[in-house]
Fold:
Amino acid sequence: MRVCSCVQEVRDYLRVERTKRKIAFVPTMGFLHEGHESLLRLARSLGDLVVLSIYVNPTQFNNIQDLQCYPRDIERDLAIAEKSGVDMVFTPADDEMYIPGVSRDKLVQVKAGRAAFQGLCGATRPGHFDGVVTVVAKLFNIVQPDLAIFGEKDYQQLQVVRELVRDLQMPVKIIAAPLLREASGLAMSSRNVRLSQKGREEAAKIFKGLLEARSCCEQGLRAGRKVRAEEVIAIAAPIIQSIPESSIDYLELRSGDLLDLAEYVDEDTRLFAAVYVEGVRLIDNMAMF
Ligand code: AMP
Structure:
């Protein structure tokens, strides 16, 4: 496995490879877990050459403390990457991605499109998706992948990235990977290590809330009844609120394609949750049909 920290090194390595092989790319912020590994497996099955990037992008953090607390362990990540059959890992420093000494808001940035303005994380994390699309555009320019894999765990991000490649006509196919959960049902996330053991157990109630909401939808729909968004939220909310030291940032029923607020459940609607548990922001979502 090749590890590169400079853009030029990545370009030199890939120049030869891209002529004969399909490049599958998995961008991450590191501290890899099984959710990331499932993306790498998918990349391995779809591409000939698997490229992983590990970069904690400062411009997508709107909270400096969150950035500083973001867990990192590059040695462990490289071991996981090697085991997962990754061909090349790109591990840039900030100075490799953003010109040093120039204020970042003076540099060219990409502005996220419609999906970023549909509430959810776009509303509660101002500037977050502009930072995401800016760094994803840079990474796509460096790696020039044929396909790139993003997890449904960050469902709004997936839609925002789909719009990025569509609107800027980038020749990259975006592949969605299913959300992976811990045995308790808690969505796997690098941030989970910041929870206490008890907090981690309790946080599984986010999944339980979504699951109960879905079974309410299934019952209603089986009975031939239209299920209203308020009903669904009223099922999930108390379960999630029963988590100690928690607060709901959002809990909303939206369409899965355009992320519009939905009045009723249908085959495309998903329930989206962002919840602070012990000060750690956790997100989750589930199809309600
Ligand atoms: P991150 O390192 O958290 O920025 O995530 C990198 C990629 O892994 C993103 O496309 C995420 O959506 C995806 N990912 C993170 N957690 C999970 C999970 N539990 N299941 C599936 N994909 C995930």
Q: What stands out?
A: Residues 28-29, 35-36, 38-39, 150-151, 153-154, 177, 179-180, 187-190 surround adenosine monophosphate (CB under 6 Å). The chain is about 40% helix and 20% strand. The chain has a mean pLDDT of 96.
